[in-house]
Amino acid sequence: MSSILSLPPKPQRRTRTIHIRLTPDERAAVERLAERHETLPSRLARHFLMQAVNYYNQQFDEQHNVQ
Fold first, then answer.
1. 1-36: per-residue pLDDT in tens?
2. Domains: count for the chain
3. For the whole prediction, is pTM greater than 0.85?
4. 17 in a domain, yes or no?
5. CA dist., res. 34 & res. 43, Å (int)
């Protein structure tokens, strides 16, 4: 079975942070998925966050005819 999760190569050094609060169950779910894909929970979360940001920016641009 192929994975739908594909992680990018190791990124440039990051210096800014965003803090979010999770329930213990949410944190455990993120950690389990990260472990399955042999990556860190923060890297997994960053990857999915940026996928969502890119997707919604593209949707906005298309709806507003932004070039």
1. 556 777 777 778 889 999 999 999 999 999 999 999
2. 1
3. no
4. no
5. 8
